Amino acid sequence: MDSYDWNRLAAASVLSCCILINCWFISKISIPYSSFEFPAYDKDTQINLNLKTANISRGKIIAAQQCGVCHTFNSNEPDKIGPSLFNIKNRKIASLLKFNYSTSLKLHKQERWTTENLNKWLYKPLQFAPATLMAYGGLSSKQDRADIIVYINSLTDQHSEFAKGN
Description:
Elements: H1 3-30, H2 44-47, H3 56-66, H4 103-106, H5 115-123, H6 125-128, H7 142-154
Helix pairs in contact: 3-7, 5-7
């Protein structure tokens, strides 16, 4: 390969770069940036649940698979990595004195574990409490979340102050 070939190769590279830059510049002028009017993903469709179609038996199975590694479900069982889910219905968030909650979850301590909050938590824990210590990515299936919520809400002591919503 002589110097003539090297010059042709260099000229072709420079010309290609110039064409690429000009195409980019022309596209920026002819196609102005505009934000979308409507989001491509509507998060509200993931928030709303239909608990009437929820299956408590299926919720028990899914909860055992998804939550059972770190949480217990009965009143007489000790806490695991996470607190017991028994009597969680309407309980204040981060309210068990014997458990050390993350500071991110403690910010919600004036709220209660309502169906809406449980749904948000199960959907994306890091979105609900950004610095949570719970290593769980979330559950995308609305039906699975509804099943788990119905099951978890059934784990109440009828005489408890939490079951009454106090």
